[in-house]
Amino acid sequence: MTTMTNDQPSQASTSNLVPMIVIGVLFFIFGFVTWLNGSLIPFLKIICELNEFQALLVTFAFYIAYIVMAFPMSLLLDKTGYKNGMAMGLGIMVMGSLLFIPAAQSGNYLVFLCALFVLGSGLTILQTASNPYVVKIGPEESAAMRISIMGLINKAAGVLAPLLFTVLVLSGMGDYSDSFMAQLSEVDRQAKIDELANALIAPYLAMAVVLLGLVAFVKFSNLPELDLEEEEQGDARKSITAFPQVVLGAIAIFFYVGIEVIAGDTIGLYGQSLDVENFSSLTSYTMVFMVMGYIIGVTCIPKYISQTQALVGSAIAGMLCVLGVVLASSESHGIASVLWGWTGIATIPDTVTFVALMGLAHALVWPAVWPLALSGLGKYTAQGSALLIMGIAGGALLPLVFGQVAHSFDTQVAYLTGIICYGYILYYGLVGHKKRHW
Is residue 141 over pLDDT 80? Predict the structure, then answer.
């Protein structure tokens, strides 16, 4: 079996090309499947007649898989190897995609949540297997660059997912805003709901076919196997929890993914509440700004700014965006008009624009936290990576907090939860990542 170890000399760029392509494709799939949820949430709210808190159980069912399934999936990787594990993860995602067919036909929200949990379980094994590849596929000092490149691919998929979803699901189907649906008679309203539910079948059936093709792509690719047992001898400590930088880093990932999901997955709900046209495609605005952020990371780290500076700057910018969401006008389109109105792309209210700009603000958190958290772990690097992956569960829990605040007050006020998220990220950038002993 071909293996890749951390103590191997740097490989030529040509030898890394195939693994980079394979992992790049997987990161595209991560982004596409993950950010499809942002478009799905407003429609499940209609189909299953949900409030904001109930609608955000979509993110809970999807991201809680990272906690529930992380340990079982790591055991599976030990048995199958990383390459076979990736193929199995894709196979699990095929089953999750196919579950959307009976979910849509029945209109049963529980079946939708089960389908999302299965999708999340498949992604758990893919994330656990692929992230170490990004770190180990080349020199350690350029790991942040590779993470930014993969993030760029991931978020580019996040831009495409809601756009394709809108085209495939809503093409020629008319208005689904809250105000329009409220005007319909019960018979007409139910007919609209049934029409929308049936329209969900085709996109997820197509996704199942694509994922099935990727199973074969990964299985028969020339992807080398990671051999993490031959890592350099690290610190003599016996448990990964003895390393403050990675434990605090996992908490930073928890808050980061939570606010990332809030910014990407609730912008559609927020736009829907303001009767913004094409609210289902608003996730693309957040993703476009995240792509811009990753481009900054690829071009500026470490040449112009350090990873620590990027993390601190991201936290401060995120807090300013949260204040913008809460204080800006829901009627004026002035900011969007200045930023992109001249391109002909549809503008959105200022307060919604600040939600999208949160994507730019926190784009560099993920690529900055990983190298800082894994620094100095030595033979514990694999365990540290698993702990960071479990932090993704923030995408399950924090949107529920957001949803409860939105249900109790309103969606605009609920964005204040982001202050806590960015506040902790600021702490980690200034203090947390430097700690080596409790």
Answer: no
Output the pLDDT for position 84.
83
Average pLDDT estimate for 18-38: 80
Let me know if residue 153 belongs to a domain. yes
**Total of domains in the chain:** 1
Element (H, E) at 4: strand 3-4
Helix (H, G, I), strand (E, B) or coil at 377: coil
Q: Are strands 225-226 and 3-4 parallel, antiparallel or unpaired?
A: parallel
Asked whether the predicted pLDDT for residue 164 surpasses 70, the reply is yes
CB 19 within 8 A of CB 133: yes
Rounded distance, CA 326 to CA 330, Å?
10
Q: How far apart are CA 422 and CA 419, in angstroms?
A: 5
Which amino acid would we find at residue 146? R
Asked if pLDDT for residue 238 goes beyond 80, the answer is: no
| Residues 67, 71: Cα–Cα separation, whole Å | 8
94-119 burial, b for 16+ CB within 10 Å, e for fewer? Answer: bebbbbbbebbeebebebbbbbbbbb
DSSP letter at 233 equals P
Closest CA to 422 of 296, 305, 256, 287: 256
Strand partners, 4: 226
DSSP for 384-438, please give it: HHHHHHHGGGHHHHHHHHHHHHHHHS-HHHHTTHHHHHHHHHHHHHHTGGG----
Condensed to tens digits (0 to 9), the pLDDT of residues 116-136 reads 899 989 888 888 777 767 766
User: Is residue 165 scored above 90 in pLDDT?
Assistant: no
pLDDT digits (tens, 9 = 90+) for 31-60: 888 777 767 777 787 778 777 778 778 878
Containing 378, the helix (H) or strand (E) segment is none
Is the residue at 169 inside a domain?
A: yes
Q: Is the pLDDT of residue 85 over 80?
A: yes
Domain residue limits at 390 = 17-223+237-434
**CATH number for the domain harbouring residue 197:** 1.20.1250.20
Q: Do you find a cis peptide bond into 302, omega within 30 degrees of 0?
A: yes
Q: Write down the number of H helices and E strands in the chain.
A: 22, 2
CA distances to 22, 161, 220, 302 from 33, in Å:
17, 8, 23, 31
